[in-house]
Specification:
Blueprint (H helix, E strand, L loop, with lengths): L6 H21 L8 H8 L3 H8 L2 H22 L10 H18 L1 H8 L10 H15 L7 H10 L3 H10 L4 H20 L1
């Protein structure tokens, strides 16, 4: 009976797969163009290794997305202001939405692939549920703001990957201009609700 490969090989293979998938999704014309066979070949592993590690294409995309998202999640959970928990709620809501927008802009190939992977509604994705709950909690702490649940959904809709791609890719809006537009929009929404 052959010996099992050491865990070091599995970790190396996982890192190679994630790097290969990231590169393929970044360079593709459409996320649907990237197959598991493409990723396996680019990473230098067998397709079986890919399926054992990630289950399916959606699982691979989700793992890559979550790996890229981890620093943002850590900053939100325990980082310093303006994203960290010690920040006043209105300032933190602005910072959270800005962080989500920047993440989607910088990782739109992954965000679009995940939204289009047939994994159900993007509103049921684990990261969306976390962001919505966090933003809703912030909005509930802003005096005079009513309807925090809907407001959180509406504000997060302004950061959807398909919208970011349309504005950045189709209309050519630069990242910093998108950030400015979002900040102005968030300010208007919050003032309208509290005014």
């Amino acid at each position: 009976m052959p010996e099992r490969k050491p865990r070091k090989d599995a970790a190396r293979n996982r890192a190679a797969v994630l790097a290969a998938a990231d590169s393929l999704f970044a360079d593709c014309r459409s996320p649907e163009d990237v197959t598991m066979a493409d990723v396996a070949a680019a990473a230098g592993v067998g397709k079986g290794t890919l399926f054992r590690a990630f289950g399916d294409r959606t699982g691979l995309i989700r793992a890559l997305y979550e790996a890229r998202l981890q620093p943002v999640e850590e900053a939100i959970g325990s980082g310093p202001p303006p994203l960290g928990p010690a920040t006043p709620p209105e300032e933190r809501a602005h910072a959270l939405l800005d962080a989500v927008l920047c993440f989607k802009f910088d990782n739109r190939h992954l965000a679009l692939a995940l939204e289009g992977a047939g994994s159900g509604s993007p509103y049921q994705a684990e990261h969306y549920t976390r962001w919505h709950a966090l933003l809703k909690g912030m909005l509930e702490k802003i005096p005079g703001l009513a309807g925090a649940d809907f407001a959180a959904h509406a504000l997060l809709a302004a950061t959807r990957a398909d919208l970011v791609e349309h504005l950045a890719g189709h209309d050519g809006v630069p990242r910093e201009e998108l950030r400015t537009r979002l900040a102005v929009f968030v300010t208007h929404v919050l003032r309208a609700h509290t005014g």
